[in-house]
């Protein structure tokens, strides 16, 4: 059944659970299945190993895995090694606003699978921002598995953006997030890296005139270990403070709020854009990068 494949496994066993799947995506007016390269002439089955992870820090409970309609599910191991061209970026993410292709590269992780590497250079070159239009929805979840380069903490710039987030209303069409949120015409759930050594969320909510947005979750230490980060957001009833927002980090729910106020009375905008930012406010001292194993975005049930 397209976009409805499901599987579950017991969390009581620390051994990986192995799943075999046949992934299809509707691209350029046709279904393409089991693609291992751009041509997609030889379909392949996909094997994935899943293993539970434990979190630490300000944990508020164990996360459930939402199910729902998938709108983006790109596992970078399926792409060929090398620079990800503009055309390939558009194919895998959907339409995009801007990015510098030469700084998005598919590389070998050294662990038996390929990853997307977003490279930031001392001369200021960076992948910048992918802004991909998605179907209107009152709720979305987005998730990635990522790691920083070993020298990230030492050589990063003053701060900047990180490749996970989504937005809605006029913001998805290019309006500044603070302006859209302040006027009630849009909002966003985004990720930043700060000059204080934090990776953190930042939300733009109605009336928010803070350039850096509201922070509900943060993690100190830009280590080179693999981490999984997921955001889920359900828009509020216009005029009511009942929007819901969740953050799940390394399999543990660390934020679960139910009083977010994105839409004032009379505003009915919806989430409608995926945003993958890779940019520093100041150039790094040396080449640094983030690596992503996958990006997934879905409408939770």
Provide the gyration radius in Å: 19 Å
What is the number of E strands?
Answer: 20
Stretches where pLDDT is under 50 for at least 5 consecutive residues are 9-14, 49-63
State the secondary-structure class. Answer: mainly beta
Largest sheet: 9 strands, antiparallel
What fraction strand?
A: 35-45%
Mean pLDDT score: 80
Element-by-element helix/strand order: EEEEEEHEEEEHEEHEEEEEEEE
**What overall geometry do the principal axes of the alpha carbons give?**
globular
Helix content: under 10%
Distance between the termini: 17 Å
Number of helical segments with 4 or more residues: 3
How would you sum up this structure in a few lines?
By secondary structure, the protein is mainly beta. It is built from three helices and 20 strands.
Show the helix and strand layout:
Layout: E1 17-21, E2 24-27, E3 30-33, E4 46-50, E5 68-75, E6 82-83, H1 86-93, E7 104-108, E8 114-120, E9 128-137, E10 139-148, H2 152-155, E11 160-161, E12 166-169, H3 177-183, E13 186-193, E14 198-204, E15 218-220, E16 227-234, E17 243-249, E18 252-260, E19 271-280, E20 288-300
Antiparallel strand pairs: 1-4, 2-3, 5-20, 6-7, 7-8, 8-20, 9-19, 10-16, 10-20, 11-13, 11-19, 12-13, 12-19, 13-14, 14-15, 16-17, 17-18
Keywords, separated by commas or semicolons:
301 residues; mainly beta; seven-stranded antiparallel sheet; 3 helices; 44% strand
């Amino acid at each position: 059944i397209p976009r409805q494949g499901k599987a579950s496994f017991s969390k009581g066993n620390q051994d990986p659970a192995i799943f075999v799947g046949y992934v299809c995506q509707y691209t350029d007016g046709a279904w393409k299945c089991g693609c291992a390269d751009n041509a997609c002439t030889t379909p392949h089955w996909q094997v994935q190993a899943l293993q539970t992870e434990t979190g630490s820090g300000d944990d508020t409970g164990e996360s459930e895995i939402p199910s729902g309609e998938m709108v983006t599910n790109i596992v970078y191991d399926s792409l060929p090694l090398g620079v990800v061209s503009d055309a390939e970026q558009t194919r895998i993410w959907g339409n995009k606003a801007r990015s510098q292709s030469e700084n998005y590269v598919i590389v070998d992780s050294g662990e038996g699978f390929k990853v997307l590497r977003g490279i930031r250079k001392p001369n200021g070159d960076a992948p910048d921002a992918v802004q991909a239009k998605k179907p209107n929805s009152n709720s979305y979840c987005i998730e990635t598995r990522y790691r920083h380069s070993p020298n990230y903490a030492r050589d990063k710039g003053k701060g900047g953006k990180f490749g996970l987030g989504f937005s809605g209303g006029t913001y998805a069409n290019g309006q500044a997030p603070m302006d859209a949120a302040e006027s009630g015409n849009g909002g966003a759930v985004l990720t930043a890296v700060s000059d204080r050594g934090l990776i953190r969320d930042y939300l733009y909510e109605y009336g928010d005139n803070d350039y850096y947005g509201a922070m509900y979750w943060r993690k100190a230490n830009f280590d080179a270990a693999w981490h999984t980060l997921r955001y889920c957001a359900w828009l509020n009833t216009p005029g009511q403070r009942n929007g819901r927002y969740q953050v799940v980090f390394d399999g543990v729910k660390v934020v679960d709020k139910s009083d977010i106020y994105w839409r004032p009375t009379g505003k009915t905008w919806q989430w409608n854009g995926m945003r993958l930012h890779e940019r520093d406010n100041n150039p790094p001292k040396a080449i640094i990068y983030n690596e992503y194993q996958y990006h997934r975005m879905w409408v939770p049930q």
